[in-house]
Design a protein that fits this description.
The chain has 304 residues and is α/β, with parallel strands linked by helices. α4 runs parallel beside α5. The longest helix has 18 residues.
Length: 304
Amino acid sequence: MRPVDKYGFLRVEGGRLVGENGSGCRLFGMSTHGLAWRPEYVCFDTFKYLRDEWHTNAVRLAMYTHEFHGYCTDGDKKYLFSLMKKGIDLAIELGIYVIVDWHVLGEFSPLIYADEAERFFREITEYYGDCPNIIYEICNEPNGSCGWEEIREYAGRVIPVIRENAPRAVILVGTTEWSQHCDEALEAPLSFDNIMYSFHFYAATHFENLRSRLKKCLEAGLPVFISECSITEASGHGDIDLVSAREWFNIVDKYDLSYMVWSLSASRENSSIIADGCNKLSGWADEELKPTGQWFRKRFLSEK
């Protein structure tokens, strides 16, 4: 049975992601790299292979807003929007879930492009408002001097726009310091229903202090979604830390957390799963995967 056929419209209940019938649902899969930079992986063969051979049930589409060829800077808006729609349409066809990621990063605060975000999410939800496949991630990694109050203000503008056309959709909200301060959301949560808070970790950079912060929030019942993670350093480079990775995924398993892995690409980053120089879009052999890709393939296949 296809994932969306099994779970239907998702919702947040008791701090957990559940399916339409109330059963627990863990989403897991790959995040694309920036859509403007790695568009080739937004294709039927890739998504189908990840679903059928790696047993993933979701994909995350990363729409960079600020960086080179960003949606809100010098990018081709029409092309990028069509690429996002293509990815959503493929997910619908394949019966998997898809995260529409408004990839705030270089601009620090989501308020910088709040007007553009409202227009983007209004237009996307006009197409897909009644679709059970879609989760909306409204700000990837606020950082720098951006505070939780700025994110709350931004969420107060964008979430009602999404709700106009997609009243049942789950919405992910990033937190400060690259989506690491879920504790601020615990202290001052948003008042909307069907909200989860994004949390990101990279096992070779983030250790027990951050794990303790996450566990505190989970024990208090905060709904958390790991919308980006890897076993490398946060830069995407550096060594893999398998000891820290095991500690992180012990938490993922204990609390039945959904998680998305960075990234579906053959970039020079160690966090990309495909080996440098490999041009295949599916059917990767061991030697065509980086160690990160080999590790996460085994991880996905171990999911029940």
